[in-house]
Structure formats: structure tokens, C-alpha cells
Design brief:
4-stranded antiparallel beta sheet, Alpha-Beta Plaits, alpha/beta, 406 residues
């Protein structure tokens, strides 16, 4: 790796460097898109990342977080110490049949990059390529993370010491991440201080009664009727237990019961999710879901077994660092290309685990093309990351790594 000589990089020079890398980054992104891999199965993706880092001469550690995580490190150009700036991209895909029709569509039936992690990975690789060629005033840690889609890969990396300097490089002082935003215009970025995405707890309820003939319900205890009352009653958590200005979602997405039209079954199994934006509301919602399910079932002669699995925490942007992010984004892109997110989204992100440990900022990267009425949204079968968003993502990551403008 050649030694960088520039102490600062102008906007024109930086964008020129990114433009040189763009064809290769586009090809890399499309290669990942054609070969998607589910959480903790990103073996090929991990190898491709390692190959590219090796070509750049960037030191890295692989085999992390279950085997597929890769963390790379670029020291400050002058060899100075101090904490590192962390940049993160997630790598996993989703169990969805692709319907894009693009030439580089998924070659793996039932699996596709429907959330844009192929684009995130290409952007972080692009930042690595550019940063390896210019003066770096700060050490930079590059986190290629597996298993964001429900696997909690960020939590495992944190537990393995990726932020503590136990894996490679010095301690990470602050962390940045991005996500493609189909609702935001191409070339723009957006964020907000405080909560940006919700916590994600999982609900698992089994209602048990007494099975009987459908013609003789008085001989049994109807678990289906009890489950129906529970479903309706759970919405009072939102409408009656939480203040109108505080956001919470209680949704059941799976219900399984019965095997015949004339049999009232003994058992109903339901699963769903709780989303909230503060620890207090999260705890209240969890408590009320349990109380409502158990007591409603009991009132109807049945029993409810409730399991609440803790999911991702709230993705919380450090207020002071978010204000600094806004200032940097406006200086980098211009006021018209930077937006403040008005309200948090009830989606979840395991970037939240980094933000629990160090000051962090997560932001949206616009994907929607000019004049386009609709850009397929996340987790839809016709979603495809917009390659034209890669330059903006790379430019933001490079500036967030501390590279000053000339």
C-alpha cells in the first residue's frame, strides 16, 4: 500500500477518486447481489471482502461473529495513536424470492438482497479503497458485519471486542453506519438525534384449552375464542396503556391452530412483535402483553403461556455527535441534500448494539431517482439497491473518517 501524501482532500479531488472506483464497486455490488447469503452463512461474501482488502494491503481479521465477520483497520497516516473511527456495513440477505428481472438477479432460489446490504458492503469497500490512497488523520476501523436480519451479528462482534481494540486496531471512539432509504431522494442523506429506529421484541403465545367437537362447544374450553379475545385486547396496549404521543406497535403476524372444520382445537399458537422507542415504554408494553394474554385466557377458561424474547435495542443517535454529523453532511453535500428525519421509524437495526457502547450515528442514504413515483421499499421482492447512491455513501464515510476538505 503506497504511503498517502495529501493532508487534505478537496471535494473535487475526492469525488474524482470515487468516480475512478465506481465501476469496480458497481460490479462488486452486483456480484454480491447475484450470490446472496442468509445470516451467518455469508461465506462467499466474506471471502470476496477479504480478497478485496488483501488487494489493497489493508490488515484485517476474519472468522468473527460465528465465522463470517470481517474487521479491517487503517492506521492514521502519521502513525499517531488515539481512538479509531468505526464504519460499519452489514452483509446478509433475506429469505425472499427475487422478482427484479435484472441480469444480476439472485442465483439462489428463495434468497435475495432485498434490504440493500449488498450496497452497504460495496460502499464500505469503496471507503476502504479511497481511504487507502489519501491522508488519514485518524485510525479507521472497517466493520463488515454478518447477520443483521434477526441474527444480532453486531451484538456478537461487540462481545468479541471489536470496539474495544481486542480484535484489531485501537479502541473505537465513535461509530457510523448507513442504510439505503427508498423514501429519500437520490444523493441525499437524512438522520435525527435520539431514537431513529425502534426496539424489536418478539412475542410467542400458546393458548391451551380443551379440545371438543365443533357441534358441542360446551364440552370443551375454546382456545380459538380465547385467542381471538387476546388479539383484540392486545391493541389496548397501544390505545389505552401508552400515552398518545409515545410510539408503540404490538402486531401479531402468525397464528396456527386446528386441523378440521368440526373440531375446536386444544391449542392455538401466535407470534408477533413489539416495537417501541424508549426503555420505559418497552418495559410497559412487555408487561402488559403478558398480563393481557394470561388473564384474558384465564377469564375464558383457558391458559396462556407467554414468552417474550428481547430483540434489538432502540437505535439511538448520540445527540451531540448527530449535530456534528449534520454540520459535516451539509459542508460535504450542501444544505439541500441533507434532511432531518421528522419521526423515528418502527423498524429495527442491530447497529443499536454499537450505539449502546460508544457514541454513534446511523443515517439514511437516499435511493429514489428523480421523477420516480415509487422505489420498491425494503424487504420487497422487486427491491434492488440503486448503484447511483454509492458515490454519496462513500463520500460521507470518507469524511466521517476524519478526512478534512482542502
Amino acid at each position: 500500500m503506497s504511503s498517502p501524501t495529501l493532508s487534505a482532500t478537496s471535494a473535487a479531488a475526492l469525488r474524482g477518486l470515487i468516480a475512478q472506483e465506481l465501476p469496480g464497486l458497481r460490479d462488486f455490488r452486483r456480484d454480491l447481489h447475484a450470490h446472496p447469503e442468509l445470516a451467518y452463512q455469508e461465506q462467499r461474501t466474506s471471502r470476496r471482502v477479504q480478497e478485496e482488502l488483501g488487494k489493497l494491503g489493508i490488515a484485517f481479521k476474519a472468522g468473527l461473529a460465528g465465522g463470517t465477520g470481517v474487521v479491517a483497520h487503517l492506521p492514521a497516516s502519521d502513525g499517531s495513536g488515539g481512538g479509531a473511527i468505526g464504519l460499519r456495513a452489514d452483509m446478509d440477505a433475506l429469505p425472499i424470492d427475487e422478482q427484479t428481472g435484472v441480469p444480476y438477479a439472485s442465483r439462489t432460489p428463495g434468497v435475495m438482497h432485498a434490504c440493500g446490504h449488498d450496497g452497504h458492503t460495496a460502499i464500505l469497500l469503496g471507503a476502504a479503497r479511497v481511504l487507502s490512497k489519501i491522508h488519514r488523520p485518524r485510525p479507521v476501523t472497517l466493520v463488515f458485519q454478518p447477520a443483521e436480519e434477526g441474527g444480532g451479528g453486531a451484538d456478537r462482534l461487540c462481545q468479541e471486542g471489536v470496539l474495544d481494540g481486542a480484535v484489531i486496531g485501537p479502541r473505537v471512539e465513535r461509530m457510523y453506519g448507513l442504510h439505503g432509504g427508498p423514501d429519500y431522494a437520490l444523493g441525499t442523506v437524512a438522520s435525527r438525534p435520539g431514537p431513529l429506529l425502534a426496539s424489536t421484541d418478539e412475542i410467542d403465545i400458546t393458548v391451551r384449552g380443551v379440545q371438543c367437537h365443533g357441534a358441542y362447544p360446551h364440552y370443551g374450553r375454546d382456545a380459538i375464542t380465547a385467542a381471538g379475545h387476546i388479539i383484540v385486547a392486545l391493541q389496548t396496549v397501544v390505545s389505552r396503556n401508552v400515552g398518545p404521543a409515545d410510539a408503540v406497535v404490538v402486531s401479531l403476524g402468525m397464528i396456527h391452530a386446528g386441523s378440521a372444520t368440526n373440531v375446536i382445537p386444544e391449542r392455538v399458537h401466535m407470534m408477533g412483535t413489539i416495537r417501541s422507542l424508549t426503555p420505559q415504554t418497552r418495559e410497559l408494553a412487555r408487561r402488559r402483553v403478558r398480563e393481557i394474554a394470561e388473564n384474558t385466557a384465564r377469564a375464558l377458561g383457558c391458559e396462556a403461556e407467554v414468552t417474550l424474547d428481547p430483540g434489538y435495542p432502540v437505535t439511538f443517535n448520540d445527540p451531540a455527535h448527530t449535530e456534528a454529523w449534520f454540520d459535516l453532511a451539509r459542508r460535504t453535500l450542501g444544505d439541500e441534500r441533507v434532511a432531518q428525519v421528522a419521526h423515528p421509524t418502527m423498524g429495527g437495526e442491530d447497529f443499536s448494539y454499537y450505539a449502546q457502547r460508544v457514541p454513534a450515528v446511523f443515517f439514511w442514504l437516499g435511493l429514489k431517482r428523480p421523477g420516480q413515483d415509487r422505489f420498491p421499499t425494503l424487504h420487497q421482492p422487486d427491491f434492488d439497491f440503486n448503484d447511483d447512491a454509492i458515490p454519496t455513501g462513500v463520500e460521507m464515510f470518507v469524511r466521517l473518517a476524519g478526512v478534512p476538505a482542502a
